[in-house]
Amino acid sequence: MPRHADPNARDALIAAARAEFASRGLRGSRIEDVTSKCGLSKGAFYLHFKSKEALFGELVDAFGKQMSACAEERESETASFFAESGAVTRRDFAELTPRYRRFLEMETAGDLRTLELLWEYRDVVGVLLRGAQGTRFEGTIWEMIDREVERIKVSFNRLQGERACRTDVPPEIFGSMIVGTYVLVGARMSRMAAKPDLTEWARTLHVLIREGSAPQDLPAAVALDR
Q1: Mean pLDDT throughout 131-146?
Q2: pTM of the model
Q3: What residue numbers bound the domain in which 158 lies?
Q4: Which of 44, 62, 142, 218 has CB atoms 3.0–4.6 Å from 40's, for a disulfide?
Q5: What residues contact 117, with CB distance under 8 A and at least 6 apart?
């Protein structure tokens, strides 16, 4: 009779593999250790995955797709905000206008979604940064970083055209700073056992990144008050 896969085995194997990958890296992990951890056989593993690399590849693909979806949602929200409310000016930042507060709320929510995703996949990020050497995933994190920097460059350049942010900062430098910050945050998360206050992290990141890139066209009268 044909052998049927246990519908719960796949999730158990993924959870066990993620723990092994985080502990030993991709090359150091063994399928027998994964299956032993969740009480299944190697045969059960191969019913679901061709190899440990195939399993890890599914995790990387899922992480990448969710990161892309998060970025697209953020860009859509930003475009809608500017279409409805106009660009946020330096005066808005200085006077904490209702428009700025709406912008702050939207941007902080976007930062929080990104941080939640990094926390969910902190083990995958950790392996891509430190445990994928000598495998086909060795350069994956840099490919992801390059894509994100390019995406942010385009977005920041558009905001500069609308004078909604500083115009004296090269978009590539800004994109590299943003992505570099999130990479380091993800690396830190990969070594944490307890979930931090991501709401506070999001607020802090927004203050450091967004207010630091605020437009400089502050009217003279307001500038004198600062």
Answers
A1: 93
A2: 0.85
A3: 57-225
A4: 44
A5: 63, 66, 67, 70
